[in-house]
Amino acid sequence: FFLSFFLSFLLSFFLCLSFFEGEILPPTIQRLMKGYNKYLRPFFDNGPVTVGMSMDIASIDTISEINMDYTATIFLRQRWTDERLVFEGNKSLSLDGRLVELLWVPDTFIVDSKKSFLHDITVENRLIRIFPNGTVLYALRITTTVACNMDLTKYPMDKQTCTLQLESWGYNINDVMFYWTRGNESVSGLDTLQLAQYTVEDHYTSVSEAVYETGNYPKLVFHFELKRSILYFILETYVPSSLLVVLSWVSFWISLSSVPARICIGVTTVLTMTTLMMGARTSLPNANCFIKAIDVYLGICFSFIFGALIEYAVAHFCTLTHMDSHMYSHHMHDFDDEMNGIITTISNHNRAKRRKEAAATPTPTPASLELTVSPSTPSGSEPKPESPPPKHTHWCLTALATVRKVLGSINCCHIENPHHIDNYSRVTFPLSFVMVNLLYWIYYLYF
């Protein structure tokens, strides 16, 4: 049983092999494939094989600032010469893409690729063409997502330079050499490419070597520079934020007594500006430490709006202080009159008291005066000195003078007309905003 099964398996295998070679492969290819070893590169003993490359950029689908990558669909074409595939004739042979499994092909890969796939609808999008001199053309249609390090400090007035790098995975520079077939013109398709937020300003190619621990490998790099279109952000962010700043200045023309109106304008513009700032950050990465240009502008607008709200608080407080100062001036006149009356009363009281004490003292006789003056009289008594004024009177006068100084210093801090604050704000706020805008746009556009 096992012997019959083995013989039937060998018979079916040889039948399939003869069918594969006789029906699928034409005679020319059969002669080329005879003795061909796809596991050995061309010129295995005669130096490296040179592989020329060119690309067509079919589309750049997405450019993500959050993930810092871009997704592109490319047509990658590779050319090399294999001396084992030389045949007679003057026409090239276009083969089915599935026959690539019979040939040696370069082990090219895309550096910094996060995710790639080969299109296979309706069949695998691969092309093999062999020329009489042994040149092989191998083309692929690939969609790949490639990392691109972005500098977002000038977002949305930024320019990003991304790269597409091609390297050999296993063959070093002693085995394989890469080159661009037509220099900078080896990459096409970018001139007619339409992107959502970017325009392609420049692109160029370069040839270098990748140095790893296992050796030096051939490397081709395609550089392209993207400039972001700022018109969308002007209409979406810059114009609304500027109009909110202008709206906050309306409160300068409203009376100081209209507290609800001015508070409503200030709080509404602050909340609206906060919502606008949160919406502008949703499409940007939150984990990085970039201070972007749009964040600076939104911060400037928020500062002006918040400053307009603080301006009304200051003006309203000065109005209340100004009203109190008028009342204080009237009270100060009354207070001065009362203090003058109190001081006059106290002084008159002290004088009357001294007169009464002087009248109550008996007038001494001449004899007694002589006795008093004479220091030799043993029975003479010393004269009584005049008593000083009471201490509580001096303390009261000192306290009243201190109170007057304190109230006088408070009275010096008031503003004569609080309405001048709004008049000054009507000029200083717009001029300051215009100056800050000029500095902002000059710096981020030209530096």
Automatic annotation (TrEMBL):
Residue span of region Disordered: 353-391
Domain Neurotransmitter-gated ion-channel ligand-binding per the UniProt entry, residue ranges: 29-229
GO MF annotation list: GABA-A receptor activity; GABA-gated chloride ion channel activity
Record keyword Transport present: yes
TM region positions: 230-256, 263-284, 296-318, 427-446
Function according to Swiss-Prot or TrEMBL: Pi subunit of the heteropentameric ligand-gated chloride channel gated by gamma-aminobutyric acid (GABA). GABA-gated chloride channels, also named GABA(A) receptors (GABAAR), consist of five subunits arranged around a central pore and contain GABA active binding site(s) located at the alpha and beta subunit interfaces. When activated by GABA, GABAARs selectively allow the flow of chloride anions across the cell membrane down their electrochemical gradient. Pi-containing GABAARs are mostly located in peripheral tissues.
Top-level taxonomic group: Eukaryota
Annotated localization: Apical cell membrane
Assigned GO CC terms: apical plasma membrane; chloride channel complex
Biological source species: Sander lucioperca (Pike-perch)
Subunit structure as annotated in this protein's UniProt entry: Heteropentamer, formed by a combination of alpha (GABRA1-6), beta (GABRB1-3), gamma (GABRG1-3), delta (GABRD), epsilon (GABRE), rho (GABRR1-3), pi (GABRP) and theta (GABRQ) chains, each subunit exhibiting distinct physiological and pharmacological properties.
Family: Belongs to the ligand-gated ion channel (TC 1.A.9) family. Gamma-aminobutyric acid receptor (TC 1.A.9.5) subfamily. GABRP sub-subfamily.
Record keywords, A-Z: Cell membrane, Chloride, Chloride channel, Disulfide bond, Glycoprotein, Ion channel, Ion transport, Membrane, Signal, Transmembrane, Transmembrane helix, Transport
Reaction equation(s) it catalyzes: chloride(in) = chloride(out)
Major place of residence: membrane
Name of this chain's protein: Gamma-aminobutyric acid receptor subunit pi
Topology versus the membrane: Multi-pass membrane protein
Residue ranges of every copy of the Neurotransmitter-gated ion-channel transmembrane domain listed in the record: 237-441
Signal peptide limits: 1-22
